[in-house]
Amino acid sequence: MNTTSAKTSPGRMQDEERGGRARDDEISSDDAFDIPPKNAPVERLRRWRQAALVLNASRRFRYTLDLRKEEEKELIRRKIRAHAQVIRAALLFKEAGEREKSGPPNVPPGKPPPSGFGIGQEQLTKMSRDHDFSALQGYGGVKGLANLLKTDLDKGISEDEEDVSRRRNDFGPNTYPRKKGRSFWVFLWEAWQDLTLIILITAAVLSLVLGIKTEGIKEGWYDGGSIAFAVIIVIVVTAVSDYRQSLQFQNLNEEKRNVHLEVIRGGRRIKVSIFDLVVGDVVPLKIGDLVPADGIFITGHSLEIDESSMTGESKVVHKNQKAPFLMAGCKVADGYGNMLVSAVGINTEWGLLMASISEDNGEETPLQVRLNGLATFIGIVGLTVAVIVLIVLLVRYFIGHTKNPDGSVQFINGKTSAKVAINGAIKILTVAVTIVVVAVPEGLPLAVTLTLAYSMRKMMADKALVRRLSACETMGSATTICSDKTGTLTLNQMTIVEAYIGGKKVDPPDNVKSFSPAVSSLLIEGIAQNTTGSVFQPEHGGVVEISGSPTEKAILSWGVELGMKFDEARSESSIIHVFPFNSEKKRGGVAVQLQPQSGSKGHVHWKGAAEIVLASCKSWLDADGVKQSLTPDKVNEFKKYIEDMAASSLRCIAFAYRPLEHLPSEEQREDWSLPEDDLVLLAIVGMKDPCRPRVKEAVALCTHAGVKVRMVTGDNLRTAKTIALECGILKDPEAPEPILIEGKTFRDKTDAERDRIAEEITVMGRSSPNDKLLLVQALRRKGHVVAVTGDGTNDAPALHEADIGLAMGNQGTEVAKESSDIIILDDDFSSVVKVVRWGRSVYANIQKFIQFQLTVNVAALVINVVAAFSSGEVPLNTVQLLWVNLIMDTLGALALATEPPTDHLMDRSPVGRREPLITNIMWRNLMVQAFYQITILLVFNFAGRNILHLKNEGQEHADKVKNTFIFNTFVLCQIFNEFNARKPDELNVFSGVTRNHLFLGIVGITAILQVLIVEFLGKFTSTVRLNWKLWLVSIAIGVVSWPLAVLGKLVPVPETPFGEYFSSCAPWRKQRDDGVA
Fold first, then answer.
1. Which residues does 562 contact at the CB level (< 8 Å), separation at least 6?
2. CA geometry: angle at 221 spanning 219 and 224, to 5°?
3. Checking DSSP bridges between strand 679-688 and strand 650-660, what pairing results, if any?
4. 1024 and 961 in contact (C-beta within 8 Å)?
5. Which range has the worst mean pLDDT, 565-569, 663-667, 1034-1038?
6. How far is residue 763 from each of residues 185, 478, 622, 671, 712, measured CA to CA in Å?
7. Distance of alpha carbon 315 from alpha carbon 57, whole angstroms
8. Where is the composition biased (Basic and acidic residues) (predicted)?
9. How many other C-beta atoms are found inside a 10 Å radius of the C-beta of residue 705?
10. For residues 63 and 17, which has the higher predicted lDDT (pLDDT)?
C-alpha cells in the first residue's frame, strides 16, 4: 500500500524523473539564476550577480549577501580567535612557572570594587578572558568568588529587581554595541543611484535650461521641471517603502537574538531573556544549550563544551573544577551542570566578536534570484525596444517627419536653431529613457523581500519565527513533513496515569501502600538523583514548583505524590558519575554514593524506554522489596504490560537499579562507565500525553494540499501507531511494513533499499536522530522537498540536511534552533501547517505581482512603439510613464505582495522547484488583458478624434484631450486589473478584498491621485481636464476588464508549460538541458 498523495505538480514530477540527480542539479546547473535553497556555493552567488542586468546595484543587491563583508567577517573572527589562543598559551607558561614557586596565588590588581561587592568588573573580565586559574584560586575558588559577588551557589542571587539592576549597572548589561540601522537618508541616497533616473534628471536639467532660454521662465520651466518633480516623487516613495521594509527586518532580527534561558534566583528556576542576565547569576546548563555569558563551573557531570565557535577547533572540551572557565557563545555538547556568570556583554570574547562584525542581514533566496533572471530578460527586451524607439524618433525628427500639435514641422534643416533642435532631441531621449524605466522591472526582485518581510511579521503572530528568509518560500514547495510526535502532534503535558511496581499494577499510580518502604525508598532515590529537573518547595508553604522537560516534570510530580522530599532525598546520597539521557540509547543513568550508615556503598540508577531498560534487567523487585529472578514468563508478562500501555497511546518508561559494592576512586571516575547490565527492575510507568486539539484537522488539510505527513518518533512503535491513528496520519490500523517501520529496521537497509521504501513510510518508531537524517536524505534523493521538525541537539544534522528545518521554540535546544530555518514558537503542528500556507502565499503573491507588472509592461511598450513608428509621437509622455511606473512598481508591490493567505492555497499541489515563475494561467490572463488594453488604446490613438467627437475642436486641443483620455484610460485599466491580479485562477476576484485594508487603501489612493493629476496638474503632466462623459467612458473601459477576466479564465490552458514548447523548438537549448540532466 502506497500512502503518498495523489496530488503532484508538474515541477514535482520533473524532480521525481530526475530522481537522485535532482540534488546534483542544484550543484551544477547551467542556469545562472538557479541557486539551491540552502548553503549555496559562493561561485554560484557570484555568477548570478554577474549575469543580472542592473540599473541600480545598491538597491537591487541591498537584501542579498555581501560577499566582500562575509570575507571580512571571517578575517576578524580568525584574528580574535588567534588573539585568545596567544593569551591562553602565555598564561599556561605563566601558571607553570608559578606552580614552582611556593607563594600563594596572586590576585590581579584593579580598580576598587563597586559598592557592595568584593570584586570589580575589570578584575572579573581579565580573569574570565584570560582563563586565569591562579587568579580564581586567589579569590578562593568558585565559592570565594561567589561570596565576593554576594551569590548563593545553590539559590543564586535574589529575585529583587533592585539587586539585578545594581549588578547590571556595576558589571554591565549582557548586550554588545550593534551597528545602527541605516537611516532614511541612506535609503534616499540609494534610490538616487538608479542609472535611468540619473539620465532623466540630467535631461530634465538640460530641458529646464533650454526651455527657460527659448520660452522664458514663465512657460519654459514646465517640461524640465515636471520631469524633475516626477523623478523626485519616485525616489522619495521608493525610499519610504524600502525604509519601512528595513525597519521590519530590524525588529525581526531583535526577536531572533532574544533567547530565553533558565537561571536560579531565590532558589527557583525561572526563565529570563538573555539580555537580562547579570554577573553573579547561577545558570543551569544542559545538552544543547548555548553558554549565554562567560562563567565559572560550579557543579556538573560529564559537562562537555563545544568551543569551535570561539577557538575554531571542532573538538569538545571537558569542564570540571580543574578546567572551570566557560566562554559565551559556545554550546553544551553533553552532560549538565551549573555555572556562575563572571562576565557579560562586551566584557566577553563573544561580545567583542559580535561587536566587531557588523551584522549583515543579506541573504538571497532562490525566488529572488530567479526574479533577477526574469527582470534581466524583460530589461533586455525593454532596452532593445527603447533603443529602437529612440532611433526611430530621432530619425523622424531630423528628417522633418515629426510635427507640432498645430501641424507645423518641428525640425527644418538649416532653419531650426540649435537650442530648439537640442531641446527636441532631449525630449525624445527622455521618452526613450522612461520606456527603459517602465520596461526594466527593478522592483521585481525587491517585491520578494517585501512579501517576505510582510509574511515574516505576520508569521510571528501565527507562532513561527523565520530565521532564514528562503525557508519562507521553500515551505510553499514542501511535499512532505517529517514530524516528531511528542509536543508537536501531542500537547507535551505528560502525566503518569499507569504504574506497575513490584510486578503488579498500582492503582492509583501514587498508592504507596501497595509496596514496601524499601521499594519506595529506592524509587524516590532514583527519581531525585537521576534527573535534570528540580523541585522548589517554598519555605513558608505554598504550591510546589517543578521545572525540567515535560517528561522530567511528570516523573518528579509522581515522585512528590509518592512522598518524595526532593532536597532531602538528594542529600542522602551524592552523585559520583552521570550518563546523560541519550536519544540513541534511549536511556540515562546515574551512580550515587550512599551514606556510610546505609550498609551499601552505592547504587546505579537507570531510567528510559521501557523495553530497552527491561532488556538489561536480570531480576526484579517484588512489592515486599525482595529481589526475584527475571524468568522468561515474567519477561513476557512485563512486555505485555508495556504493549497494553503502548496500545493506549501511553509513553512507557522503566526504572531499574543495581547495587554497587566497589566504588571507583576519584581518578578512575573520569574514564569509568556505568554498569548497564544485570539490573534490577523497580517499576514501569505509562505517561499520557494527549493529542493537540486541532491536529487531526491540520493533518487532513496537509494531505488535501498534497503534503504527506510522516511521524518520526523515538517512542515505542505501538504507541506511535496509536497516536498516528488518532491524529489521522495513519488510516489503516493493520498497515504493514514499511508503512509502519522501526528505526533500526530502516537503518540496517542499504541506500538503494531505503530509497525504494522511503516514500511509503508513514510512521517510524524507536527512531534515533540518525534514522531521521537517513529518511530525510532518502526522500530528498526521490525529489521530495522535505520539512523536518526537531527539538534535540542530535536533531541538528537532520534539521540542517532538510530543505526546511523546523525547531521547537518551547522544548527545542539552542543547538537545534541554530540549525533550523524556522522556529515554531508554540511547538504546535497546526502552526507548521500555517507556515505551509504562508510559504505558498509568498509564491502566489509574487506571481500576482508578476502578472500585474508584465501586463503594464507589455501594454505600455507596445502602445508607445506602435505609436512611435507610425506617427513619431508617443501618447504616454515621460511624466505619465513615471506615474505608471510608480503604480506598477512600488504601489503595485505593496498592494499585491501583501495579500494574506487564503484556504484556496491549500487546494493546490505544492509548487514544484523548477515550476516556471510565469505559469500558463498567468500567460493567458496577461495576454487577454494586454491585448484588450493595446487594442482599445491604439484604436483611440489613431481614431480618437472621431470616436470622441473632437473633430470640431482645434487640432492641438483635440490631440491633448485624446492623449489625456488614453493616459487616463490606461491608468484606470491598471487599477481595475489590480483586482484581477489578486485571483489569477479564481472567477470571483473580490473574495476577501474587504479584509485587505492595505490593498483597498492603495487602490483608493491611486484613483484619487489620478483624478488630481488629470484635473489639477495638467501643466506638469501635459494633460487637460476631461468632462464627465469622458471620465465615464474611461471607467467603463476599465470595468470591462473584470468580465473579460472571467471569460478569459474559462479558456483552458495546456498542462505543459509554454516555456517547454519554446525549448523544444530551440535545438541548442534542448542539447543543454539533456547535458544537465
1. 510, 512, 520, 523, 524, 527
2. 135
3. antiparallel
4. yes
5. 663-667
6. 55, 18, 36, 38, 6
7. 42
8. 13-26
9. 22
10. 63
Closest to 715 (Cα-Cα) out of 692, 686, 739: 686
User: Distance (Å, rounded) from C-alpha 94 to C-alpha 32?
Assistant: 56
Contacts of 676 (CB under 8 A, 6+ apart): 589, 606, 616
Is residue 104's pLDDT more than 50? no
Out of 83-87, 290-294, 339-343, 527-531, which region has the weakest mean confidence (pLDDT)? Answer: 83-87
Report pLDDT digits (tens) over 407-455: 677 777 777 777 778 878 887 887 777 777 777 776 677 677 778 878 8
963 has pLDDT over 50: yes
Residue 690's SS3 state is: coil
Contact residues for 538 (Cβ-Cβ < 8 A; gap 6+): 544, 545
Residue 349 grid cell = 570574547
Q: CA 105, CA 91: separation in Å to the nearest integer?
A: 13
CA dihedral 273, 278, 282, 285 (to 10 degrees): 50
For residue 83 the three cell numbers come to: 588573539
How far apart (Å, rounded) are the C-alpha atoms in residues 627 and 619? 7
- 409 DSSP assignment: B
Residue 92 has pLDDT above 80, yes or no: no
For residue 332, what is its C-alpha cell?
553544551
For residue 373 the three cell numbers come to 533572471
Give the catalytic positions in this structure: 484
Question: Do 130 and 88 touch, CB atoms closer than 8 A?
Answer: yes
Give the whole-number percent of the chain exceeding pLDDT 70. Answer: 86
Answer yes or no: are the C-beta atoms of 323 and 54 closer than 8 Å. no
Q: In the predicted model, what is the mean pLDDT of residues 914-918? A: 79
Helix count and strand count (H, E) for the chain: 43, 26
Do 853 and 444 form a contact (C-beta atoms < 8 A)?
A: yes
**3-class SS at 162?**
helix
Decide: 593 and 637 in contact? Cβ < 8 Å.
no
Distance separating alpha carbons of residues 730 and 130, to the nearest angstrom: 57
Using alpha carbons, list the distances in angstroms from residue 185 to 190, 865, 922.
Answer: 9, 37, 38
Whole-angstrom distance, CA of residue 980 vs CA of residue 635: 69
Averaged pLDDT score across all residues of the chain? 82
pLDDT tens digit sequence for 858-893: 888 888 888 877 776 778 877 888 788 777 777 888
Are the C-beta atoms of residues 1022 and 430 closer than 8 Å to each other?
no
Q: What is the dihedral of CA 449, 453, 454, 456, to 10 degrees?
A: 130
Beta-bridge partners for 590: 578, 605
The answer to whether 670 and 702 have CB atoms below 8 angstroms apart is no
Is the Cα torsion angle 714, 720, 721, 726 positive or negative in sign?
Answer: negative
Query: Reduced to 3 states, what is the DSSP secondary structure of residue 655?
Result: strand
Show the cell assigned to 1055. 498542462
Which position has the higher pLDDT, 360 or 623?
623
Task: Evaluate if residue 483 carries a pLDDT over 50.
Answer: yes
Q: Collapse the DSSP code of 606 into the 3-class scheme (helix H, G, I; strand E, B; otherwise coil) and give the result.
A: strand
pLDDT of the residue at 113: 66
Starting at the edge strand found earlier in the chain, the sheet holding 804-808 runs 464-466, 822-824, 804-808, 786-790, 480-483, 708-712, 763-765, 740-742
DSSP 795: G
The one-letter amino acid code at 172 reads: G
**How far is the first Cα of the chain from the last one, in angstroms, to the nearest whole number?**
31
d(CA 245, CA 249): 7
Q: Tell me the CB-side half-sphere exposure of residue 420, using CA atoms within 13 A.
A: 14
Which residues does 226 contact at the CB level (< 8 Å), separation at least 6? 878, 879, 1019, 1020, 1021, 1022
